[in-house]
Amino acid sequence: MKEVSTTPPELVIPSGADPLLTVEHLTMRFGGLVAIDDVSFSAGKGEITAIIGPNGAGKTTLFNCITGFYTPTVGRLTLTARGEEYLLERMDGFRIAQKAHVARTFQNIRLFSEMSVLENLIVAQHNELMRASGFTVTGLFGLGGYRKKEKEAADLARYWLDKVNLTHLADINAGNLPYGDQRRLEIARAMCIKPTILCLDEPAAGLNPKESSELNKLLIYIKDEHDIGLLLIEHDMSVVMEISDHVVVLDYGSKISDGTPLYVRSDPNVIRAYLGEDEDEALPPEVAADIAKDFDPENREGV
Amino acid sequence: MEYFIQQLINGVTLGSIYGLIAIGYTMVYGIIGMINFAHGDIFMIGAFISLITFLVLGIIGITWIPLALLIVLLVSMIIASIYGWTVERLAYRPLRGSFRLAPLISAIGMSIFLQNYVQLLQGARVRPMQPVISGGFTFLEGSAFSITVSYLQIVIVLLTIILMTAFALIISRTSLGRAQRGCEQDRTMSALLGINVDRTISLTFVMGAALAAVAGMLFVLYYGVIDFYIGFLAGVKAFTAAVLGGIGSLPGAMLGGLLIGLIETYWSAYFSIEYKDVAAFAILVLVLIFRPTGLLGKPEIEKV
Asked: Which residues cross the membrane (chain B) (predicted)?
């Protein structure tokens, strides 16, 4: 929006080289509260797009619009993938996952805690299995290719279990896993719906540095090997700077910056949003980024 | 001793019927956290459909009993399923997301409607049916008392075991069952994985209704008389069975049904037949005082 002319042009992302998700003029109002105000950006295929901003900036609301929790007040959300175009704002909640294959994880973990780790991954492949099982009738007797399909589903599940290092825990209840494992399992489950775009809401929250760097590797692996788009809400600036290709900054519901990590880090608008308005002299960008990393108030979240 | 064993057989038979109805209560409670108060009336409708189908089959001359039973079973399951689906569509789905009491009240309305609808169509008098399956085995022809197991009792218990196994397999092995368990734990997350939550809930009602219809058919065969009001008491008993076993738990519903059947039978056999319902409900009160979650129920964990 407010691009600074002094920035070298190569630092700004040429928007929409291979756009997967295009968000146009998205506005979400709750009564008098404007949670998202005319936000437009696009997220590319094979890219990690990070959405950052102070707590309460509207990041989770944006995710909720994309995944069909909320119907946007104004705006259009277009997903172009696998030769089809989906207008997400017009689709029912479950069809967004079923047809457009948009996957999502939550800030607070939402696994099926009373199912086994493996079942959590198989339940994500429900639609294909439901069709293969003749809507349960033939499936009950193991007829009509259901066995084969179920084996395929289990194979996909095991592939992802292997990727997130949980193979040895496949049969225990998901609720009994340690926190870090649950986070990774959630990502594995999201991958089992064969997503075109994966939306991750603070995947690194609560992870220790080692787990966090493993997570980074996993996300980069997913991006490179599966050629999907990743949309990431993250507070940990080191994660954002390390793995994202494209950063969108929100503040009070508006987009204040959009570009490469390097560009965004030095954008005065971003520094102002993180450090406050009364900044007479701009801090050196490295210092500002460092402070921004530590400035992480947990108490304004919730919109 | 012979008397005791005879009552055991009778109690298990009655308990099977209660168990079949109780599964419908417990599955619906599991998935939407609400009691389907129209479920007892679906059972009653299943009984009427069975009676009518038996009569029609008699008229068109299908009298070979296994075939007739199979046809009646399928017809009553299918038609009762349609009723179950309709109840969900009319009384529950429009009110999803409304305050908690609203669907409860609309379900009670649905129950009253169904009772009156059958009363208008079929009349208020009891409807008798000729015994279809007669005869049985007699064991231990003792001097004082002999134990008899009728063929009908064997049919009832066998059919119940088969159906309960089939439904347990659906829940544990098929994709529909996994979706149901998913919706039970987290409906929002299930939708985000592409599961059609509304359809899964509908199918849960349909499955419960199909089992209630089987119970209705067995009830007609066992007692030989029905009226439009049988759904109320049977429904309350089966609901009690579901709560006794731990509402939301499938094995609990089966166990609860058996226990209610046994308690009722033994009470009538050894004490007084007038107070058999009191006995069943008194046991419920006792269990709930000492184990509020029922026998096999899990303690309610506050959801975030």
From this structure: 12-35, 42-62, 68-87, 99-118, 151-171, 201-222, 279-297
Token pair for B213: 């219809």
Cβ distance of A126 and B197 shorter than 8 Å? no
Tokens of A113: 């805690």
Is A1-101+195-303's fold the same as A110-193's?
A: yes
Best probe of the A interface among B175, B195, B199, by most A CBs < 10 A, is B175
From CA B173, how far away is CA B253, in angstroms rounded?
Answer: 19
Q: What is the CATH number of domain A1-101+195-303?
A: 3.40.50.300
Q: Report the amino acid identity of residue A265.
A: R
Q: How far is CA A298 from CA A55, A107, A207, A232, B209, in A?
A: 7, 12, 15, 18, 48
Residue B127: φ, ψ to 5°: -110, 120
Say if residue A3's pLDDT is above 50.
Answer: no
What proportion of chain B, given as a percentage, has pLDDT over 70? 96
Predicted confidence at residue B110, as pLDDT, reads: 92
Helix, strand, coil fractions of chain B, as percent rounded to 5:
75, 5, 20
Rounded mean pLDDT of chain A? 78
Q: Report, as ranges of residue numbers, the positions in chain B whose pLDDT lies below 50.
A: 303-304
pTM here? 0.83
Q: Residue window 180-209, chain B: list those with CB within 8 Å of chain A.
A: 181-182, 185-186, 188-197
Domains of chain B: 2-290 (1.10.3470)
Which CATH fold topology does A110-193 show?
Rossmann fold (3.40.50)
The residue ranges of every structural domain in chain A are 1-101+195-303, 110-193
